[in-house]
Automatic annotation (TrEMBL):
Residues 424-469 form the Helicase HerA-like C-terminal domain. InterPro entries: HerA_C, P-loop_NTPase, T4SS_component. It holds the Pfam family HerA_C. This is Helicase HerA-like C-terminal domain-containing protein. Gene3D superfamilies: P-loop containing nucleotide triphosphate hydrolases (3.40.50.300). It comes from Oscillochloris trichoides DG-6. It comes from the Bacteria.
Amino acid sequence: MQEPFIYVSNPDELHYADSPGPNGIQVTQQQGSHAIFAVRVPFIPSFMTSDFTRTLAGAEMSRINLITLRQVRFLNDLINARIIADGSSAFDLRFIAQPSSIPGRPTSIEIVFLGKVFHANRNQAKNLCWNLWRKFRSHYPLEDPFNYPLAPVTSEEELLYYLLPIPIETVGQRQILELRKFEDVDPYVGDNMTGYFPHPFSPVVDASAFGRFLETLAQQEQPCVVSICLQPTALFQEELLLINQLLSRYRAITATATASHGWVELYRKERFEDLQRTFAPLINKRNHLFKIKIQLIGANYAPEDVLEALGSELIENTTPEPRQWVREAPLNDHELEVARYNFAFLEHGPWGKTQVDGVAARIRYLVDTMQAAGAFRLPIPPESGYLPGLEVRDEPFVLPPKRPDNNEAHISLGQIIHRGIITEQPFEISVRELNRHGLIAGATGSGKTNTCLHLLAQLWAQHQVPFLVMYPIDKPDYRLLMADPQIADQLLIFTLGDETTTPFRFNPFHVAEGMLLKTHLSLLMRCFMAAFSMWDPLPAIYRAALRQVYANAGWNLEHGKGGCGLPTPTMADFYTTLVAVSDAMTAGYDEEAKGRVRQSAEIRIRDLLLNAGTVVNTNSPAPLSEVLNRPTIMELGRVGSPEDSALIMAFLLVQLTQELQSRYKRLPVAQRGQQLHITLIEEAHRLMAAGHGKNEDLGDARGRGGEDFANILAEVRGYGEGILIAEQIPTQLVSGALGNTTLKLMHRLEDQESFKLFCEVMNLNERQREFVRSLGQGQVIVRDHDSRPVFVQVGNYLDRFQTSSDLPLIDDSDAAVKALMARCGITIGTAIPWEPPAVTQHTEGDLALDPQTAAREILARDGQVLPDALQDALSGMGNSMKLRSQVEQVCRQRFGQHPNYPQVRRAYLLLAAERMQRSGVPVDDRILNDLVGTTP
């Protein structure tokens, strides 16, 4: 828990000190400093009855009694503050009501405790106040099952607000009231002292306790504050003697009245019993008492109705003899000055009229802990969980058991939240454990990107662990790292697919030094399977083409290894080989079937070369020595279609993991354990999608490819590679991506299936499941080493480098990225220009002029598989604006030069939708109508 700010006043302030004197209890004014701390109660715990089943039968009244008794115990402990500063310490519980500035919004109520010590020496006052704070904290009901939260006020500005929520100089006589005990005197005795007793407070302890008071306070149309101030004290010997004399004297009068046997006898007996009930607690608890002061202040007028409601809480008026209380208001400037000073400095200066004086002057203000608890207590919510003006929360997450000492290198996820309060205890993640992989799940706006940035920045700044981010979205989120002075100098940012900024090129067919070719062939095939939907015989054609393209370059398919000096095929070479292999393997097919297979086989690589040939069609390998040794961002949002970006991500991961594996094998055994690199994959479902959706067979095929790829990533941990997967909808991922990740972070999830899945994974109970439905931004659930869920507030990385409007503090434009990379001196290979070969049998000129006929011919060429972008768009999956652009790209590539292009486009989309519906794939009619009605 944080330490509070201690406010220390000027050394010329006053303290009203009580002491016995020759004429009774006298009040002297001492000069010195007031030292004050403040702590907020940010919310009220819901006190679910189930929390108390260990000690109770579960009855509502038992629940309230137990919580009330715990608060009485708290007050009993606070009385011992006299040991710290006898007569000069005080505690103030304040309820501050602030009407909303927005019409129709309810009034909010804040609860704050103030603690005060007075001393003639300013420094000593502050030191004593620290001791008072530690005492307050040690006795406060923080423990289970009570869990009242406590948030120390750490700034002077905030403390001064709680000390004077209404500027004290603006408070006039008609704005301040005090609630005091009613002083009862015997009218049939000649003096006020004989038979005198103040009506004791008898607090209400039931299921509605404090409810009426809070309801009235929450209805206020002006700012107002209720202050219940307690000063620990004890009876002076003179007061103890006087009380015993009052009892003895009235006992004697009662005995005299008994002889008359009239109404006076009954009256005196009843009154003597009242005196005994009033004074017996003061005598028995003479060393454990408080002086009480209850003040109510309104910004514009005295809150009379709040006073009435609070008075009702203090006096249980359902008894045969209801007691009374009185209101007191300043009648002149002097009384107002004392009342205001009392409020500002937690003082108990006397003012106002009283029935008695001398030794009896203080008796009216003395209370035991049970009486004090009538007002100086925290609300207890009913089973409904509603308290007017206050936030009631069920906070089911607690601090984990003592975590093992972590002497290894680690990073901090954030601060652990215990019962709704952010603690100072960090949740630490071992850096070495990150190569067991992690899954970071969260809906848009949940703080997922901030979490990723927070972790990655620590990896490099604190431990020099290089990382790579694959970001398939055209947004500058990760460019914020340019603002981090601990990262910016070494940061690399590549804009794949954008040749005008900082392009990146690599040859997917490059085999790392010492790696077997046949292993690389298998990995390339898994890339294609994970990114593309393939139906038989396409997988066999791709495998054969991969082997053939390397054989054409002179490679030994069985024993060949990277680094042998042989030429490496390019993507253009693979396209040419793929077409030839497809023709050879379908030689026995009829012409229509042969055309479908050939078109389906080559169309994907043709589209890849047209859309992203500048990225993957090069003779040069990737500059992996730089990428693997520095913090690097790969922006893939400008590549084009989701399939192409997924395939490039897969190719990149293969290149990176093989290079790491090659390095690992070349390292001395003693140094291998030191190799560590982290790769973060955003929107990983593009690469590791579960096998459902579109078409059952094709979806399963792609799902198997994604599963294979997930398994590959699981294996790379042995070479020092850790994979972090960031995903909005985790259930879109293959099971391997879920099962092969040890670290799992759960932000707010909107997708219900993903929510249910993570609730199971995190071992959440029913109350915790209900709670995590509304996780705040930057809040996560993570499993501890013992598999228990832990609630964490992630460190806020974004706010370090953004304005309050979420705008970056640095220039994150393409020009800024280009300038950043110009300083790096990294050489990127040259792209090989590629033009699609003329295909005589399938040119647009061969298409029929009739739009309907032309559309059927185009679908026939597509074979059994429609382009993924087209299916995604017609199914309503993904961003509609982006998918519309991709649909237009698909149409332009296939028949963009047709003289009747708009009509062919419309017919093609309608026929494609019809084919999807026949295959059982849903079509979004609204999107279809929008697409066919769009004039390109």
